[in-house]
Amino acid sequence: MSTITRARSGRLAAVATASALSLGLILSGCASSGSDAGGEASADALDAALEAGGEITYWTWTPSAEAQVAAFEKAYPKVKVNLVNAGTNTEEYTKLQNAITAGSGAPDVAQVEYYAIPQFALADSLVDLAPYGFGDLEDLYTPGPWGAVTSGEKVYGLPQDSGPMAMFYNKTVFDQYGIAVPTTYDEYVAAAEQLHAANPNAYITADTGDSGFATSMIWQAGGKPFQADGTDITIDLQDEGSKKWADNWNRLVEGGLLSTTPGWSDEWFKGLGDGSIATLLIGAWMPGVLESSVADAAGDWRVAPMPTYDGTPVTAENGGGGQVVLKQSKNPALAAAFLKWLNSDPESIKVFLESGGFPATTAELESPEFLGYESEYFGGQKINEVLVDAAKNVPSGWQYLPYQVYANSIFGDTVGQAYKNNSDLNEGLTAWQEQLVDYGNQQGFTVK
Fold this sequence. Notes:
Strand content: 5-15%
Number of domains: 2
Strand order of the largest sheet: 2-1-3-12-6
Number of strands: 13
Helix content: 40-55%
Oligomer: single chain
Shape: globular
Number of helices: 21
CATH class of the largest domain: Alpha Beta
CATH architecture of the largest domain: 3-Layer(aba) Sandwich
Structural class: alpha/beta
């Protein structure tokens, strides 16, 4: 599984703990504990730190981490990296916030998904890596992931993977029922109707209300519902793009055309294998999941561009993350040097790709070897050609809330109710907005 896959699969189990992240403490400045050990920050300080050696701790859940750490320690034998799996996404973030609030116990380097980085950056708990020369690395990465780890001139981390969305579809099922591969959402809804009419036990996709999916779909539709400038926030979950997605997806929700199988459950994987769930609109990290968890469907699946509203190619990011250096680090230069190696060194990236990750680095995305890879699972299709094209069609300007971790935790109680009742998603979005505005203001933000 890729980094993001693990994040997604753990989201439902961990989301109940999100409320433990105390944003009141963040805004009061209690999070800003750190050390200036390691001398003045500079690009030269990284080489000096590696030469001097030392010991750092790295929190992550990515399956490539063990092999990457081994490769790093082989290249730099004076450095010891203590690898810790502190839990998946929100579980890890809760432990991080507890350590930040306590002023001790945080790792030197931590894996953080893009949507959660603003929360920790606003808390002033992350090292600005720009003084170490990290700003010069911008051209190594695709624009979307790079934008997710930076704010103005500040660099809060380096991207590891990305999740440009594509449509994964079961070609065997489509062929069986004479369904053409949809290129627009009108065609996608028509395919959903055709499939369910032909087989009442089959659905175009499964969706019981996932916050990450919904925000990605709003992003693709051109929405920008969250705008943040420091502690000043605007929320508009009825902007043009949000309504465009909700009105379109309502045709499936209100029409009973979506499988109610919970995502990442055993039943969900079974549905992907037996054809009762015929498509997935999801991030580019999905191939490794299908190969490892739905092995019996090898040869059935293919990849196509996301359906669009008017035929113009456009998609969005779904998942993805990188690594950051915590201000509590007693050796931030060594931590930064490890992070730089982790997400820019060819040896590290090779290990990451071998574990099924989808890169955020332009060199790998543009390499003939990567583009020309023929996937046996996907019937010999050169799937990376589709996925790399998707990475080029992600609109810029998207922002997450500085308390997106909390926002995701209450999605099921607001928008999720529309899925349960087959009712209007717009009402759910409005309820979500009201709670997010109230919560933000209670935590010290100025939200309108």
